[in-house]
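Note to self: user wants both folds in one dump. Writing first protein now.
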Amino acid sequence: MSEEKTIEIIIPETLGGERLDKALAVLMPELSRTRLKALMLKGHIIRDRQAAADPAARAKAGEIYQITIPPPEDAAPKGQDLPLNILFEDDHLIVIDKPAGLVVHPGAGNPDRTLVNALIYHCGDSLSGIGGVRRPGIVHRLDKDTSGVMVAAKNDTAHRALSEQFSAHTIERRYLSVVIGCPLPLKGRVATLIARNPRHRKKMAVSKNKGKEARTGYSVREVFRAKGQPLASLVECTLETGRTHQVRVHMAHLGHPLIGDRLYGRGKTPKAAAGTAAGEAIKAFPRQALHAAHLGFSHPLTGKALAFDSPLPEDMKTLVKILKSSKRQRET
């Protein structure tokens, strides 16, 4: 278990006149400014035997501060022994291949048996604390029914560095999706604003004048046909931004929603699929056919380029196989 520790910091001339929380964050990069503010308010930062409780106070060159860092608190979610497909792990982060059906974070309707519960159990004491709590740092999420590669941080330093990469859109993220019909042109880019749907709180929507900028590159990798018409397509989507439901919203905006996406596709099935095994497979597919196939980023401590790939899961492989079989049957 981690123990309480006290660190002594001397303010150098180069940081004299800066806000105290900012100066200390520069000198202690392993702690975020938010964490330092919390320590100040709890009386854990001392100068001249008195608590330095004002984060906005100006630091003075030569001042000496004693910063006491308590051991991280146990996380509110309890660790649970759930299976994890781990692609990479070190003292700072963990990369997993998330299966469809696994919720990332506890919430309404999903109080436990989530990815966070599994990570707390698996990582144990290697979680040195995010904001003073022994929990994994979730820097991005996948929807419950989206499978694929995810990264989580184990400490504040890694959490902050990874969050900055996501904010700067320097993370490489590529998804594979199976959509209704075939987008034209076969390769393109969708750039819109995405905002919460005003009539449906669980949906996002393309907006003309509000919301956040969202950019998705796409490339059709394979087209599946029936009766001479495009039935469905395997499409690779590259995220330039990372908005909620971005791929699902943008593909539906193009008129080609993901197979199995009840929220944005409304159970849409091509007429050419009527009475075929492909049509039945499209109707029966139980989730949005979306898989986070590639994740690339710089290691938050070493700066080394890391890249991870995940093959199509079995349910999407089976779907593609049936769509291909339908094509052959119609051509013979």
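First done. Writing the second protein, which came from a different request thread.
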Amino acid sequence: MLELIRSARRRLILSVFRCQDFAILDEIADAVSRGVQVTALLTPSAKNWDKRLQDLGLLLESMGVKMTRYAGEHAKYHAKYMVADGETALVASLNFTSKCFDRTCDFILTTQDPDVVIGLSALFEADRSRPPLALPGNLGQRLLVGPEIARTRFARLIARAQHQIRIIDHRVRDSQIVRLLQEREREGVEVQILGQGDLAGMTSHGKLLLIDEELAVFGSASLAKPSLNDRREVAVTVTDPGLVCQLSDYFTQLVARTPGGVETASAARAGDDLEEDEPEP
């Protein structure tokens, strides 16, 4: 993240759910001081963070950041992404907080894929408008944006699995998704879920879906009703064989180092999970 902010020469856009990491804030301030136009889109609310979000907005404005608070229909702007100079994009599952950098299991992708860069830039401009515009039509095939299309895309990916579905997500609670996972398990697809709790000494926070060791999806979206129905979320697909292999190997390592191991789909319990799915910083 620091490298991406540091690389910006003309413009940096970023969405913010929580941020209190001074290294990130200092790097943003440095970007402004060297003439980079920094524009931030801030969530309107986050559990136990309303006062801190007000202070964060004031701090960003005092730095010279062009700050907009999301004013759309979604309850929270939970997506985490950046785009530098319209050339390089970053999609993350983590908040810009010390806890996420130090103690949680999370995932980040940086890419210069034009489809991702253009899609995120278009989403950002639509969402920071007053009122926000409709979901752009040029999001490309790699972005899963919630709540409009995330549920459908996740369901299609799960349905296409032939051999194995592996999930890291501490909120696999959505009833439709849980039923689909259980159906796939009955059809002979292996389903492995690393859920809430300790992951090899880290707090489970990042969301990862692996399909047949051929495709990976990660980002801010959890497989829970609030995430799929009510929040702005962004996840990205990865099909590069080397990256997918690394993520699959990492999952295997986590299973070996995690007390209690993995859950099956039959053990997943659906429910209207309305709790905020973010750790405190």
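Dump finished. Worth passing along: The chain has two domains: 2-128, 143-267.
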